[in-house]
Amino acid sequence: MTQPHPSTVNTETILKNAFSAAVSVADPQIIIPQYLEKIFPVGSEPQKKCLVIGAGKASASMATALEAYAKLHWPQVKLEGTVLTRYGHHSPTTKIKIVEAGHPVPDQAGMDGAREIHALVNQLQAGDVMIALISGGGSSLLTLPVDGITIEDMRKTTEALLRSGAPIEEMNVVRKHLSAILGGNLARLAIARGARVEAFLISDVTGDSPADIASGPCAADYSTYLDALKILEKYHLNKEVIPASVFAHLEQGLAGEKPETLKDVDLVNAQVANHVIATAYKSLEAAADYVRTLGYEPVILGDTITGEAQEVGRSQAQIVREYQTKSSGPIALISGGECTVTIPNGIKGRGGRCSEYLLALFAASADIPNMAALAADTDGIDGSERNAGAWFDQDIRIAAKEQGLEPDTFLSAHDCYGFFAELGALVETGPTLTNVNDFRIILLKK
Hints:
The protein is an alpha/beta fold. The protein folds into two domains: 6-22 and 281-444, MOFRL domain (glycerate kinase, domain 1); 27-278, 3-Layer(aba) Sandwich (Rossmann fold). It is built from 16 helices and 14 strands.
């Protein structure tokens, strides 16, 4: 079959369709039934109570999919539970309670919901099954601090870590060691009650480790109290910005006065399994398959690209130059991973890491003709505003010049949202009800 030439399809359409392809392959309505069928083949469905708990931006949608499957295939199973999701990410259910709460900074609604989940797990009995529906965003939503630490303490700690520029993996090491749920503590509670645990994970982290996805509430943890204290020290987060109660708990843990997070040795003979059912790389492959049908040669740069968003944008501009000289036809450079944005004191900023990356790429590639790009968060929300990300092509570049918009000025103010909003180049999807990290695509035609 003859493929359409790239020039016959609108560039904006290609960019946005590639993003849609990446998001669609991680749709819980498709993947949850597939994995339930694998893990609970016919005749092996839960025989006693099936408790469904979860947290994350995709977890409500996962709960909807699970309920629909159970209604059709497990009509006799007693299904109940509670799932936490971010405000605006609700999905309809009848038996599983959905609680909306704050993200990325935790709030009282999240803490109350996490406490409810903790209580439900503590009521499990031998032979019961607990299904955990976990996705990105769960670390903030499952905020149930250990005794002695308040929700305000957790909020201040989270805000300080966010502003420090610490990558999400390091943020979560700290949060695990302050939580009664994260770092495998939820599985530990279920194990003690004699229950079986099956966790379904949609990954938004590099490496797709169950211990890192939503801080691994059902997974063995590799980090320690010492690691958490070293991270605070690394980013100069002292007792002036981190509550004294947080330092006291971490120091007591280091001294062996508090139990560590769940370790592999704790799972010997335990009925606990973590299933990663959607990943960033699978989404990048779906986008690659789409652009290939339009005559582009897809190049997946990887799903683990991290670092300061502006630095990654400038770095990828240089990668485009290299491919410009050695490629004979249209190419699409596709990547994932989670960048960071460090906001200096006194600057509020507008936007998120995807838009900031894209604006840096825009600024660093003014000399590259026939280039277009898009960067967006697969959960549909990029940072402080309500857009998923942004895009540009040669027409957008011309419009920026005509309107006198200087990208460097907006980069200095960390106002990437403002720049692309002025140009009508935002990507706005609303909550997608899934989350497999950030998506970036650069199109280059000869």
